[in-house]
Amino acid sequence: MTAAAPIVLVDFDGTLMNSAADLVEITKSVLSRWLIDVPVPAIEALLGLPTAERFRHHGLPEHELDEAVRLFAHLHAECRYRLSVPLAGAETWLAATPGLTKWAVSASPWTAVSAGLAKHGLDGFFERVVAAPPGGGFDKVAALAPERARFAPGMCWFVGDQEGDIAAGRSVGARVALMLTARNAHLASRADRILTSFESLLEDPLELAWTPSR
After folding, report:
1. b/e for 156-178, b at 16 or more Cβ within 10 A?
2. Into how many domains does the chain fold?
3. How far apart are the C-alpha atoms of 73 and 136, rounded to whole Å?
4. Strand pairing category for 102-109 and 8-11
5. Burial bucket for residue 85 (CB in 10 Å: 0-12, 13-18, 19+)
6. Alpha carbon separation from 11 to 104, 142, 169, 189 (Å, rounded)
7. Which of 82, 100, 125, 140 is the most exposed place for a label (fewest CB within 10 A)?
8. pLDDT tens for each residue of 81-120
């Protein structure tokens, strides 16, 4: 049986990677099939919501939503995050913490996340990539459940930016560091630490707060 150990789980979209440009491009490509043109700020404002809900807000008829969701998933799976950039300080923090075991966690397709990490030279920093299978739904809590015994209580962190990240972190007994944005300020009170970039982790490392449970 694998012994429990300190692990830092890092959400991909919106936390490790500013992937809005790629997700906007995919969204606009799908909407164009229905001759719908939505301003970029309006698309960005809904990123993070379920795909069907976003397309419903963008004006797709209800009977077309399933097809639009399938098309988005297909295009997303092939995405290499070529327009994306790592968040401020992410690469420096990853390089400065070789002793930390890190997992990348994402509800995006595994193929896309893995390709994105490789494209930006970040793949070597992560022991595992936990992400959505091809054409399938994904729940972070359910995906991490079989691995629960690997996480040392009181010595793990989940760095994320959405409510699902908080739930996933709590589900494995991890503390939560919230990457603060204009869209998630309402979640701040539920996090153990607030971040605005990875640069602060160089001055005040996550591992300083590790206190094994008794």
Report:
1. bbbbbbbebbbbbbebbebbbbb
2. 2
3. 9
4. parallel
5. middle
6. 6, 15, 10, 19
7. 82
8. 999 999 999 999 999 999 999 999 999 999 999 999 999 9
Question: For residue 66, which amino acid is it?
Answer: D
Residue 107's CATH number:
3.40.50.1000
How confident is residue 173, by pLDDT bands cut at 50, 70 and 90?
very high
Q: Which is nearest to 16 in space by CA: 83, 112, 113? A: 113
Asked if 118 and 197 sit in the same domain, the reply is yes
CATH code at position 73: 1.10.150
CB atoms within 10 A of CB 122: 21
Tell me: do 152 and 140 sit in the same domain.
Answer: yes
Give the model's pLDDT for residue 214: 37
Identify whether 2 is part of a domain. Answer: no
Residue 89's identity, in one-letter code, is G
pLDDT tens digit string along 54-82? 999 999 999 999 999 999 999 999 999 99
Give the residue numbers spanning the domain of 179.
Answer: 8-18+84-209
Residue 136: predicted pLDDT: 67
What distance lies between CA 206 and its chain's CA centroid?
Answer: 18
Provide the pairing of β-strand 17-18 with 157-160: unpaired
What six digits make up the tokens of 165?
Answer: 């990240």
Q: Is the dihedral of CA 111, 114, 117, 121 positive or negative?
A: negative
Using the structure block, give the residue that is written with the tokens 């075991």: 101
Which distant-in-sequence residues (6+ apart) come within 8 Å of 181 by Cβ? Answer: 14, 161
CB 60 within 8 A of CB 31: yes
